[in-house]
Design brief:
Strand content: 25-35%
Mean pLDDT: 87
Number of strands: 14
Number of helices: 13
Low-confidence stretches: none
Radius of gyration: 33 Å
Length: 347
């Protein structure tokens, strides 16, 4: 009986301690990747003025993303296309005494304005990019220059706005922000549930039946003193059905249960059948659903028999008739009916 003392509370803490591992690992991976790769600079780029930009040093330090303040940009007459769509316009400008090629989005340069006096653009530093090299070779041909000559006068580093603001870059930023926030929020919430189990979802779901703290205390007391039926992770007390498995924790008053049934699952690999496990499904009032997976048949049969005897109003077994009865009891389509009634009145 000592092992059942505060079993629900301990199970809730254990359950969320196991769940918190995944978001912690995910957050560590996100932080590590942002350190190893220049993702941090993409998410929060620094601003660099024209005379303070050293593209080679920034590239060497993996600070390849930034907001660049540029002046006197001149259109080269060349564009970057993909599948007959213009992705950007090539400009050249002087950056810290170097002639640098800058690729701008069509909207930024107003579809190829001849000159741009001043511009602050978010871009990625590229080294010896294929697009920039192809541009310079074409320029050399148009100007009757040799390739070595034009390559020696123009910086090997270029700035590309589409690479920093295009769909792949934006998708990466959204991915990092959403999943980073999700991981942090999950860790905070799980820590709260571990510190204060009464605030956890399994306990708060009992709010429909009374005060969660009082229900938890009563269920703990009944479980610790005199459980009516006990399996490895399912218990029945005088007033409650309790689950404390690694898949979840649940408390539901027996008199609130309206439907119970079991479902079998055969586990196999290729042609070899290993075992059959059974899942207990419980539907209680106010759309409270409980799933107890991977149990043995005798345990679930014992639970079903005891609950059906304790509450004769419980519907036992899965059937279309029982499903329709539960649908009627829970009034599942009441909102839809109200909405259709509202529309009919309006019509």
């Amino acid at each position: 009986m000592d092992s059942l003392e505060h079993l629900i509370t301990r199970s809730i803490k254990t359950y969320y301690k196991n769940k918190i591992i995944a978001p912690i690992i995910f957050l560590v991976i996100i932080i590590a990747l942002s350190i190893i790769f220049p993702i941090g600079h993409l998410l929060a780029p620094k601003t660099y003025s024209e005379d303070a930009i050293s593209l080679s040093e920034m590239y060497g330090n993996k600070e390849v993303y930034g907001n660049f303040k540029l002046k006197s940009l001149y259109f080269t007459g060349y564009t970057s296309k993909w599948l007959d769509r213009t992705m950007g316009y090539f400009y050249y400008t002087m950056v810290n005494s170097e002639c640098v090629i800058v690729l701008l989005d069509p909207d930024t340069c107003e579809q190829g304005a001849p000159t741009i006096e001043e511009l602050t653009v978010k871009g990625q530093i590229l080294y010896d990019s294929e697009a920039a090299r192809s541009l310079l070779l074409n320029l050399a041909s148009d100007l009757n220059w040799n390739e070595e000559g034009i390559l020696s006068t123009v910086s090997s580093y270029s700035i590309s706005e589409p690479d920093a603001t295009g769909f792949p870059a934006v998708a990466l930023q959204v991915f990092y922000i959403i999943f980073g926030i999700y991981s942090v929020i999950s860790i905070i919430i799980y820590c709260i549930y571990i510190a204060f189990p009464v605030l956890s979802i399994p306990v708060q779901k009992t709010r429909a039946y009374g005060k969660p703290a009082e229900i938890l205390a009563e269920a703990e007391e009944e479980l610790a003193t005199l459980p009516q039926l006990a399996t490895e992770d399912m218990f029945i007390t005088e007033h409650y059905f309790i689950e404390t498995s690694s898949y979840g924790v649940a408390i539901v008053p027996i008199d609130a249960i309206i439907w119970i049934y079991k479902y079998s699952t055969m586990h196999k690999f290729l042609w070899h059948h290993f075992s059959i496990t059974y899942t207990l499904y419980i539907t209680a009032g106010v759309r409270h659903y409980i799933k107890c997976p991977k149990n043995i048949k005798s345990d679930i049969d014992g639970i079903i028999d005891y609950l059906s005897e304790a509450n004769h109003n419980i519907l036992v077994g899965f059937s279309e008739e029982n499903r329709l009865k539960v649908e009627e009891i829970q009034n599942d389509f009441n909102i839809v009916r109200k909405f259709l009634g509202f529309l009919s009145k309006r019509v």
